[in-house]
């Protein structure tokens, strides 16, 4: 796939689940420990780490415990206008 094409929701979902699992392991937390600390059910956490499916509220709770909640502040931030053609880039 060409790198300038936007990622699909499925690709982003897979990246998020992998990043969250890696962060959990880096902090040396088991799924059960993270579940308790975040108040997210163990079933929801296991489903997220296997399929990427999770509610927004649960995702934010996990992000808080995993010390990456601030990363969500950039979601949907207004950016400068993107070029519409190659000529606009030149």
Characterize the structure shown.
The protein has about 90 residues and is mostly helical. The chain has one domain (about 1-65): 434 Repressor (Amino-terminal Domain) (Orthogonal Bundle), CATH 1.10.260.40. Helix content is about 55%, strand content about 0%. It has five helices and no strands. The protein has helices spanning about 10-25, 30-40, 40-50, 55-65, 85-90. Helix 1 (about 10-25) crosses helix 3 and helix 2 (about 30-40) crosses helix 4. It is elongated, with a radius of gyration of 17 Å. The two termini are about 25 Å apart.
Set down the secondary structure blueprint:
Layout: H1 9-26, H2 31-38, H3 42-51, H4 56-65, H5 86-89
Helix pairs in contact: 1-3, 2-4
What's the SSE pattern? HHHHH
Number of domains: 1
- Model regions low in confidence, pLDDT < 50 over at least 5 residues: none
**Radius of gyration over alpha carbons?**
17 Å
Principal-axis shape = elongated
CATH H-level homologous superfamily name: lambda repressor-like DNA-binding domains
What does the largest sheet look like?
none
State the CATH architecture. Orthogonal Bundle
Which class best fits the helix and strand makeup? Answer: mainly alpha
- Residues in helices, as a percent range: 55-70%
Q: Beta-sheet strand percentage?
A: under 5%
Report the strand count. Answer: 0
Q: What is the typical, i.e. mean, pLDDT?
A: 90
CATH class: Mainly Alpha
- Looking at CATH, which topology would you report? 434 Repressor (Amino-terminal Domain)
Distance between the termini: 24 Å
* H/I helix tally: 5
């Amino acid at each position: 796939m060409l790198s300038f094409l936007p990622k699909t929701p499925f690709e982003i979902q897979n990246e998020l689940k992998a990043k969250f699992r890696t962060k959990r392991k880096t902090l040396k937390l088991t799924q059960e420990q993270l579940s308790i600390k975040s108040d997210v059910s163990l079933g929801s956490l296991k489903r997220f780490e296997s399929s990427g499916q999770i509610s927004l509220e649960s995702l934010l709770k996990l992000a808080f415990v995993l010390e990456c909640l601030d990363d969500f502040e950039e979601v949907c931030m207004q950016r400068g206008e993107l070029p519409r053609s190659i000529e606009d880039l030149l």
